[in-house]
Amino acid sequence: MVKYVYTFNEGNKDMKDLLGGKGANLAEMTNLGLPVPPGFTISTEACNTYLQEGAVPETLTTEVTKALRSVEDKLGRKLGDAEDPLLVSVRSGAKFSMPGMMETVLNIGLNDESVKGLATVSEDERFAWDSYRRLIQMFGKTVMDIEGDGFADALEALKEEKGVHYDHELSADDLKGLVATFKSIVKEETGREFPQDPREQMDLGIEAVFRSWNTERAKIYRRRERIPESLGTAVNVQTMVFGNMGDTSGTGVCFTRDPSTGHSGVYGDYLMNAQGEDVVAGIRNTEPLKALERENAEVYKQLVGIMRKLETHYLDLCDIEFTIERGKLWMLQTRIGKRTAGAAFRVATQLVEEKLITKDEMLQRVTGEQLTQLMFPQFDTNAKRVKLGAGMAASPGAAVGGIAFNNEQARAAIEAGEKCILVRRETNPDDLPGMVDSEGVLTARGGKTSHAAVVARGMGKTCVCGAEALIIDEEAGTLTVDGRVLKQGDIIAIDGASGEIFEGDIPVTESPVTIFLTKGLEAGLEACNGDQEMIELVQAVDQIMNYADSRRRLKVRTNADTPEDAARAMEFGAQGIGLCRTEHMFLGERRPLVEKVILSEVGSSEREEAIAELGKLQRSDFLSMLEVLDGKPMTVRLIDPPLHEFLPDLTSLEVKVAVAKATGEPDPSDLKMLEAVRRMHESNPMLGLRGVRLGLYMRGLFTMQIRALISAACELKAAGKDPQPEVMVPLVGSVRELQIIRDDAEAIIAEEKEKAGVDLDVPIGCMVELPRAAMTAEDLAREADFFSFGTNDLTQTTWGFSRDDCEGVFFPNYIEEGIFGVSPFETLDVHGVGRVVNEGVQRGRSTKPGMKMGVCGEHGGDPESIHFFDEINVDYVSCSPFRVPVARLEAGRATTEPQDATK
């Protein structure tokens, strides 16, 4: 029989698949002897069974009863007892943290009778009724699907009537009346009374958490974070402890290091006389954790000791939730804390310096995506600024955009091609779509542990929280600061590193991290302008990148078509060019020459002259590129796309000729061009006359390019340089195709070498872009010196997709339906296309052991794909210049990645 329920002393931190992150860590803290309120976890398997069958598994109910009785026996109280009630919380907890995306219900077990018992045992009538109104509000919204605005409006109306600003200023009698109001809202909205049976409350709460796995906001978050749909969430049922039992009680969130900067110390927020949602929701502005020392020195000392113990145990920055109930500290949750990109790099190097982790482990604490964030530009400190105010620096970055007050306005801005900043009093999980669409988030309330801050950090979005001077009126569509009124669409800028808010656009400058990566450590430190935090960050990136380079097996090349791109990539640390697309060199002013080649007769002097002229230009291109690459390999892909791409659009040309015929005599050159365009037109050009087929159909093109490349290389070799050209034949499907081109190439190479009197080694290889090429790679390897897997086209041909036609049409639906977790053009489809690549590698090396293998599709710069390429022993990846540092880091991480024992 499947076991669905585990008490906290039955699990551990390594059971996240089954117990979710929260449940596994509650079990771990229990095992460590920390003060954790008793409870139990319902497994992710139960959730998935419920979602599949639409009903709670029959055995789950009895398991929950046994676990609940165990908790009741331990505490000597019963759930919802009228005299001394046990109250519990029901919380979600997936394997991967999804802050605020799923449901939580607190104070389950309260009803019209047990609230009186709670008032008696707590000797605090106000606390009891405050707890009851919170239950009805949360239960109504999360379990009974009542819009939360009704409850919020009733609460605000009561505070206005009583002339108070904060919830805790309401009296017990005020709250009794509010409970009655809330119950009437439940009856009016659902047609039924608020449930009085404590067990019914708990069972309905558990089902609500199960269902919350499939809410729209949870799905959006999972798609963004690439969390599999199949995982499901666990449910944690835990004894309630109360932070709202008066001035000796409180609740808070803390971090063992600053999640924004990575600095070691005491960081966090807390509120006295409050429950956890008050801190996370940002409804009240919090106190810094250090102030707790004045409030209760003994509890503060105990908490700091537990923080140290947890960081030492988990060997990482920990995010911890706690509650103080009448002076007693309780630990409610811990997890590996989300952090900014800068904090990730600083914390990783700090933990090495403190001898808590190894350097290999250090590489696993950072990601290429975080490095990308650090390379983004930042505000120009010398630019003119109009400061509006400041809040808490919750997630760094420089964001500029028009004001958007809600999800709809943010989406409208995106659809209009404009950038926006989401501006809210405070955010809640329903604001996730707007946060995804915006450049950054600005809130008037909340601190570094508020919903806005936590989610923004996880998404790599700029965020400023708790800017109290802002008066936000969403209904009126205004943001008021010191009498200055801004409206939807007005441009503002927020600095997530300083917390400053500015009016209007502000220019950005290159990040010191990017300057370091291209110009070296000294230049990067100089660009910090004395900013100590930035100096520490640049030094941390330097340490990690140097170690990644020392450990990685994969070489990293770049895709570049111009000397400028090549030079930039070399500055970023590229070890050569893995893909030089020569067709890009035929555009602009050279297009007429290509048209002449296409329009002229085969063997005509006109065609030969045009090809010769292109050859001179191409030779100059290669000369410039090879000079930049001196001493490094440059793989030149012979012209690949169909020739019609160099000709005018068929429809436009037909219209032009038709109009000319209707009004007079059409231009003879237009008629000739139309004839050629019709002749070259293809129904499916991606599978038509392109690549090696074009080279065989129009032999002069490939031979011109090969001669231009080799001639340029020989000139540089004669001048004492070290050119390393490589010829790559595209879209090969048959060994005979490659053999013909290779014979031509070898003849030209021998001729040019003899003419220049130099010795030059020129490898000749092919791209593997067709499944047939991979499946017959043992044959191709007889004629190829290397393979380069063009994973863009290989994805198209393996899936049968036309990328240009598919991505904007049905891909979003495929992602929505869970067919894709992410577009296969962004991250390699390892299960399908990856197998084809691996097959090609193995078959090629069966003929030529040690044969050089590369990847030159966009996947060469994708972190997840790089790990796969390392696993199948590809020799190098090639990516765009800006992604080179990312690929270097991920290649190092791939080498040091712990091996999965289950594989």
Task: Describe the overall structure.
With 903 residues, the protein is an alpha/beta fold. The chain is built from 37 helices and 33 strands. The strands form seven sheets. The protein has an eight-stranded mixed sheet. An eight-stranded parallel barrel has the order 26-27-28-29-30-31-32-33, surrounded by five helices. A five-stranded antiparallel sheet has the order 1-2-7-5-6, sandwiched between helices. Helix 17 (432-437) links the parallel strand 17 and strand 18 (440-443). Helix 13 (341-353) packs across helix 21 (532-551) and helix 24 runs parallel beside helix 28. The model has no long low-confidence stretch (mean pLDDT 91).
Name the beta content range: 15-25%
So how many helices?
Answer: 37
Secondary structure category: alpha/beta
Average pLDDT score: 91
Could you give the count of β-strands? 33
Strand order of the main beta sheet, please? 14-24-23-16-17-18-19-15
Q: Rg, please?
A: 32 Å
Q: Describe the biggest sheet? A: 8 strands, mixed
> How much helix, percentage-wise, in residues?
40-55%
* Cα distance spanning the termini: 27 Å
Shape: elongated
Multimer state: single chain
Unreliable sequence segments = none
What features would you highlight for this structure?
903 residues; alpha/beta; eight-stranded mixed sheet; eight-stranded parallel beta barrel; 33 strands; 48% helix
Q: Can you summarize this structure?
A:
The chain has 903 residues and is of the alpha/beta class. Helices cover 48% and strands 17% of the residues. It contains 37 helices and 33 strands.
